[in-house]
UniProtKB/TrEMBL annotation:
Residues 131-328 form the D-glutamate N-acetyltransferase-like C-terminal domain. It comes from Tsuneonella litorea. InterPro entries: DgcN-like, DgcN-like_C, DgcN-like_N, P-loop_NTPase. The lineage of its organism: Bacteria, Pseudomonadati, Pseudomonadota, Alphaproteobacteria, Sphingomonadales. Pfam families: DUF1611 (PF07755), DUF1611_N (PF17396). Residues 46-125 form the D-glutamate N-acetyltransferase-like N-terminal domain. This is DUF1611 domain-containing protein.
Amino acid sequence: MTIPGPYLLYLGDTTDPASIKTSRGLAVFRGDDCVGEYRHDGCPLTVGLPRLTMAEGAAAGARTLVLGIANPGGIMEPALIADARAALEAGMNVASGLHQRLNHVPALVALAGDKGLALFDVRDPPADLPVGTGRPRAGRRLLTVGTDCSVGKMYASLALVAGLRARGARAEFRATGQTGILIAGSGVPVDAVVADFISGAIEQLAPARDDDGWDVIEGQGSLFHPSFAGVSTGLLHGAQPEALVLCHDPSRAAVRGLPERRLPGLAECLAANLQVARLTSPRVRAAGVCLNTSRFAENEALRLCREAEQLLGLPCSDPHRFGVEAIVDDLLCHERSAPAPTASR
């Protein structure tokens, strides 16, 4: 979908840093298209952009307010709906990736119609998605997987695409979440797809290709998160990945939203993902590890990367901080030595 820019990014009254990942992702990867951020006085967070009111955002050229937050269940609280109304009154379109749809709120639909503005629901999946088959298909695909949700799978995916392209390889980012779709301009919101069609949606998102290029598919959730493991499983089967890259936030001790449930160990998590992926990709392998070390000093971040490398025997880096050169080296080395899979007839 084409969402008119520039954007004003919405933080609202959010206090959880992980909950503003959509606004943060747009600020990092589409910064030139963002004029500022809108947040209430009780919000201690920022994505590093000028703090603007709705009127100031519109005056600065913003054409769309992006509700760049994520909350449990993806619901729109009354205060958020009121802020969306204020954006429409100021002359801006409104875009959202929440599960509750803007177009399901009659007051917003009516006001947008009166103002000649648009409501964009990023989490509307495409119509007529197929059921997955798991049949072998040509092409090289990499899927990012995680020990938990919101650990940097999108950041790692985008960094890997950039790293592959820098080395002259063809590579495409295949977005599967609201933030990735807003950054890329296309994709499938896989957590809004009916369960029977998840693997088919990913087969359609990353179809067979014969140009030796890579599809880097953005992972979602975690096999070890009871709330989201179903989505992660469908992604593993639909992606039919040649390679997995494991993503992890070493500052976490427990699964997000479930403090009583411990995070899996890196080796445990990687082994489980490889096992599930083998249903449709028997030769899948691990290509590296990406850590989100944003809460650590540089020396400690480097130590954590070295520790993960020694534990798993794989290249490890913080993609945003240190790059992904070693992981790209691994991918291209195996690309030269391993025959490409062929599509079934």
